[in-house]
Amino acid sequence: MRSLIVKSLGSALAVAVLLAGCNKLSLEKLGLGGQSANSKELPSPRQLKTIAYMSQAKSGPNGRLIYDRLEQARSCHDLQIAMRWNRPPDIKAGPFNEKMTYISSSMPASLSKASEVFVTGKIKAGQSLPSGGSDWWLTLQDGSEIQAIETPEYTEKQEEAQQQPGAPATMYHPYTPGRLLCAYGVYQGDIGMALGQPRHVPLVSVLFAMDRSR
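The chain above was modelled as a monomer; its predicted structure follows.
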């Protein structure tokens, strides 16, 4: 376990510079809004019907309706539908005015560093860090592995949001192998450390995450 923590802290230092520039973003602004103008990749009406239980609100005085309580998602599948509505993959939006890349299998070879990503993977291992952050190793659908680290400031932002009366939990059993973790974050390149092996894997710095059974 000590070796895992050392590797995790090393990777966390690698993302510190980027996160320092956006650590003042509030949770509701972490890529959860945006415009859908001219998008050809919005969820279908049938898909949207399956998440009709999720709350919506206007993104501004003249804005479109977006899903404003993402923690209500009962599954990672439902969360991804809501995120695709809020952030269509073919439209630039969010705090960095970039496109969102949705990943459930291997990282695209053409994906550049500092790209916004929404990742869904099965938890292989996970742990809380001495700093107060979280660290996960995820297995994607094709069997490939990635490392995901949530630094303390973003863990705190999620915990603060959970203090609202009646707010559904984002995390239930976040370090239990076999559960799904769905996370919005920033791709850092192949600088993560594989679990128990001396090789590098893709690293994602997490800005918002949930664990679900499916």
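The chain has four helices and eight strands.
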